[in-house]
Amino acid sequence: MNDRNRDVTTPVRHPAWSGRARRWLGIVAFVGAVLVGRSSLADHYRVPTGSMRPTVHEGDHVLVNKAAYGLRLPQSHIYLAEFGGPARGDVVVFDSPETGEVLLKRVVAVPGDLVEVRKGRVVLNGETVPVDVAGGGAVEKLDGVRHDLDLSRGGGPDVGPVKVPPGRYLLLGDNRGNSHDGRFFGFVERSAILGRAIGVFLRDGVPTWLPL
């Protein structure tokens, strides 16, 4: 046998170990993608109270687009890219300025707006937002977004007129007389708004789809 050939070593392969490594790498990649996606792209939220009735009920499960207003670093409030800001009428999830818990409310005023709330009715830049009252119900038309209001427990506290500061938003519940919202904890920073709620997908344990 040629001496040169004796020095050539054939590598020992372990197909079982290589297969396990590939499987584990696949699992790690999948889990990582889910975590990044839930943090930065989409998530779901279970509504704990009735402050958004009749639009959203307590116990509803809501799908949230976390990339609606920009892309963030996972598990942070730092934007990598910002899109258009929250608009009047959007239903959003956000970190409470008081407790840090995640809440669900509607955007009623954006930076630069002069806003006041009287008996549950919103006045924007000197004009009262239209509310149609019929058959015991009420429908508010906020920048073209029509949504139901619950005024059965009154309109809650009055505020304003006050100008919304740059980078902040006034958020209210649709159940105006039974909502702990921006009339209590003040304006909410854009960075605290985690995403836009786009629909209810589970109500009373029954799959459904109710766009918001």
Describe the structure in your own words.
The structure is a single chain. The protein has 212 residues and is α+β, with helices and mostly antiparallel strands. It has a single domain, classed as Umud Fragment, subunit A (Ribbon). It has 3 helices and 17 strands. The strands form 4 sheets. Strands 1, 2, 5, 6, 14, 15, 16 and 17 form an 8-stranded antiparallel beta sheet that branches. It has a 4-stranded antiparallel beta sheet with strand order 9-8-7-13, with no helix packed on it. A hairpin with a 2-residue loop joins strand 8 and strand 9. It is globular. The termini are far apart. 28% of the residues are buried.
Largest sheet: 8 strands, antiparallel
Provide the succession of SSEs: HHEEEEEEEEEEEEEEHEEE
Total of DSSP H or I helical runs spanning 4+ residues: 3
> According to CATH, what is the topology?
Umud Fragment, subunit A
Per CATH, the architecture is: Ribbon
Secondary structure: helix percent: 10-25%
Q: Runs with pLDDT <50, length 5+?
A: 1-11, 26-40
In the CATH hierarchy, what is the superfamily? Umud Fragment, subunit A
